[in-house]
Automatic annotation (TrEMBL):
Gene Ontology terms: cellular component: nucleolus
Name this polypeptide is given: SAM-dependent MTase RsmB/NOP-type domain-containing protein
Biased segments, Polar residues type: 74-93
Transmembrane spans: none
Species assigned in the record: Henosepilachna vigintioctopunctata
GO molecular function: RNA binding; rRNA (cytosine-C5-)-methyltransferase activity
Amino acids binding S-adenosyl-L-methionine: S429, S430, A431, P432, G433, G434, K435, D453, D480, D497
List of catalytic residues: C554 (nucleophile)
Gene Ontology biological-process entries: maturation of LSU-rRNA; rRNA base methylation
Keyword Plastid appears in the UniProt entry: no
The SAM-dependent MTase RsmB/NOP-type domain, residue ranges: 337-624
Primary location class: nucleus
Region (Disordered): 1-30, 66-193
Length: 647
């Protein structure tokens, strides 16, 4: 084979590791880590000498302190006796008064004397603190034998012998300091509030007091902590004290807050809207805790009357409607409802499933610059429109009948009705055709749909929408719905979206705030009762798939909702069943002094402040017999004649 050619003989070889990295060396541990594994290393001779020297200094300082304390006590006793004798014989002069004033002032004002200290006292305190900390550290770190202690004590006694001149100088300096501290202690009897202010403002500056605080409160386990951990612990304690003081201050401010003063009847002040809104909040807070915050001169009715007047002024409602709303909602929820009724509900559209799918329609509208989202999980056809660059009633998709502009709450009655294919269904009040076209889409243009309305002008809108949306299984009639049972019967399902006062759709028609009164509500109530009885009579109870009636209104007043259903339960052989809607507020079983049927909780209420849709009421009835009770029929005729006479 021959020897391999070496063409790179003239080139220089690279220094260092080749393609394979060098083998890693064994790890080298620091000496202090090895010592911990083997055991605690014995102290060297030099370290022992350092410890002995430190202990000597410590014992010397303790002995000096004891000597000075004993002599200070003796000097104070002698000076106290001499001061008493002099005070009895000698009157104070002007110069002595000045000297006393200087001693008392210490160069500080009255405001800061409670926490500032002279420099000499601070130094002495710092030295004492350092000695005490050194004592604790040295005692924990070393344990000396009995012989070493005895030798050290003998050396300490020799070192503590001081000259008379040095002792006298130390005594004189500390006597002055003690006198100043005695004067300060007599003058520093301040109140608790000053101490609290000091603790808040000067806690970060007083390092000496921080050290004392740590020494007093730290336990034995704190000695093992690092300095930063000790500072962290001290900081937490400071924050806890600050929080406690802040809570106390807040409570005192709340207690000192002035109570709401009821306005005088004679005062004719013209208040701004902001003042009225503020007074509304105050009155509601008083009514929430009436026993504590009330004015003894005025009753709850006076406060309610004042609140009603302010609400009527601020939100532009008449007295009748505002009184009904105050009876319907709690006060805090009432404000939420009134605020929500001032804001327009989001625009919603319903996809026409006869011509397109919601996914395709959404994509087409997004391509035209429309910002939209699904209306919710409860609906498969609804879309919410947030913003659009073109009018939603003039797009090619709208003109082609791909969608219908319809409120979200208008989808609920048809969903509760749940129409099936090949059924015979009646919409007793169908204009302008939104709900009727929804029924036709769910029926997939099978069966027969009867759309009726009494208004000839409004029925034309039904015809136009049916043509645009492609509804072909419909029969459109224009007659009084109360007379419909005499013309056609035996329907599988009937939808009655009854005419009402419109208190749930104030945003669409703001005239409802001032135009509706008790007579209007009573007129609607009588008409709704008659229409509901006619709708029940049109249904065939023996239907294999149906026998259901859905009653809905765009009103939130119980007079137009629960009262009408309760009346129908008494007059016809029907019962309430579940609407099949997963959300909504249950209907009233008890309303003030009224007691409705126990199954009234199966009905559903929808509010703008809770569900972000127009106020609505939906109830579903099941007819279980075609027989009309005779006694009820006669009474019904008498009541209808009486109501017609009143009107």
């Amino acid at each position: 084979m021959g020897r391999k050619a070496t063409f790179k003989e003239g080139t220089l070889k690279k220094k260092g590791p080749g393609r394979k990295s060098k083998k890693q060396k064994d790890p080298v541990f620091p000496k202090f880590l090895k010592e911990t594994e083997e055991g605690v290393k014995k102290l060297s001779r030099r370290q022992k000498l350092r410890l002995q020297k430190g202990l000597k200094k410590k014992v010397e300082s303790i002995a000096k302190r004891k000597i000075t304390q004993d002599k200070n006590e003796q000097n104070q006793i002698i000076k106290g006796q001499s001061i008493k004798v002099k005070s009895q014989n000698i009157k104070p002069t002007k110069t002595s008064k000045k000297l006393i004033a200087k001693k008392q002032s210490h160069g500080f004002s009255d405001d800061n004397k409670t926490w500032l200290k002279p420099k000499s006292i601070k130094k002495s305190e710092i030295s004492d603190d350092e000695d005490s900390t050194q004592m604790s550290a040295d005692e924990d770190s070393t344990q000396m034998s009995d012989e070493e202690h005895s030798t050290q004590m003998s050396d300490d006694e020799d070192s503590t012998q001081m000259s008379d001149h040095e002792i006298s100088s130390v005594n004189n300096s500390e006597d002055v300091e003690n006198e100043e501290s005695m004067i300060n202690s007599e003058e520093d009897n301040s109140d608790e509030e000053v101490a609290k202010i000091r603790s808040l403002n000067d806690m970060s500056d007083d390092s000496d007091e921080d050290d004392e605080f740590v020494e007093k409160n730290d336990t034995v386990s704190d000695e093992d902590l690092l300095p930063i951990e000790k500072k962290n612990k001290l900081l937490k304690k400071k924050l806890a004290i600050e929080k406690k003081l802040a809570d106390e201050e807040l409570e005192s401010n709340i207690e000192s807050q002035e109570k709401f003063q009821f306005p005088d009847a004679d005062s004719n002040e013209v208040l701004s809207l902001q003042d009225i809104q503020h007074r509304i909040r105050e009155v509601i807070s008083v009514l929430a805790d009436f026993s504590k915050l009330r004015d003894l001169k005025h009753s709850r009715l006076d406060y309610m009357e004042l609140l009603k007047q302010d609400l009527c002024t601020y939100y532009s409602y008449n007295d009748f409607l505002m009184e009904r709303l105050m009876q319907l909602f709690p006060l805090f929820e009432l404000l939420e409802f009134l605020e929500a009724s001032e804001v327009q509900r989001p625009l919603t559209i319903r996809t026409n499933s006869l011509k397109t799918r919601r996914r395709d329609l959404a994509q087409a509208l997004i391509n035209r610059g429309v910002n939209l989202d699904p209306v919710g999980k409860w609906s498969k056809e609804g879309l919410v429109i947030y913003s659009a660059q073109v009018p939603m009633g003039a797009t090619p998709e709208y003109l082609a009948g791909h969608y219908m502009i319809q409120g979200a709450s208008s989808l609920l009655p048809v969903m509760a009705l749940a129409p099936q294919e090949n059924e015979r269904i009646l919409d007793l009040s169908s204009a302008p055709g939104g709900k009727a076209s929804h029924i036709a889409a769910l029926m997939k243009n099978t069966g027969v749909l009867f759309a009726n309305d009494i208004n000839k002008d409004r029925i034309r809108a039904v015809v136009g929408n049916f043509h645009r949306l492609g509804v072909t299984n419909s029969v459109i009639t224009c007659m009084d719905g109360r007379k419909y049972p005499s013309t056609l019967k035996d329907f599988d399902r009937v939808l009655l979206d009854a005419p009402c006062s419109g208190t749930g759709v104030v945003t669409k028609d703001t005239s409802v705030k001032t135009s509706k009164d008790e007579q209007d509500v009573q007129r609607c109530y009588n008409l709704q009762r008659q229409l509901l009885l006619a709708a029940i009579d049109c249904v065939n109870a023996k239907s294999s798939t149906g026998g259901y009636i859905v009653y809905s209104t765009c009103s939130i007043l119980p007079e137009e909702n629960e009262w009408v259903i309760d009346y129908a339960l008494k007059k016809r052989n029907v019962k309430l069943v579940s609407t099949g809607l997963d959300f909504g507020v249950e209907g009233f079983v008890n309303y003030r002094h009224h007691r409705f049927h126990r199954t009234m909780n199966l009905t559903k209420r929808f509010y703008p402040h809770k569900h972000n849709m127009d106020g609505f009421f939906v109830a579903k009835l099941k007819k279980w017999s075609n027989v009309i009770p005779q006694n009820h029929e006669n009474k019904d005729d008498i009541e209808e004649n009486a109501n017609s006479d009143v009107e």
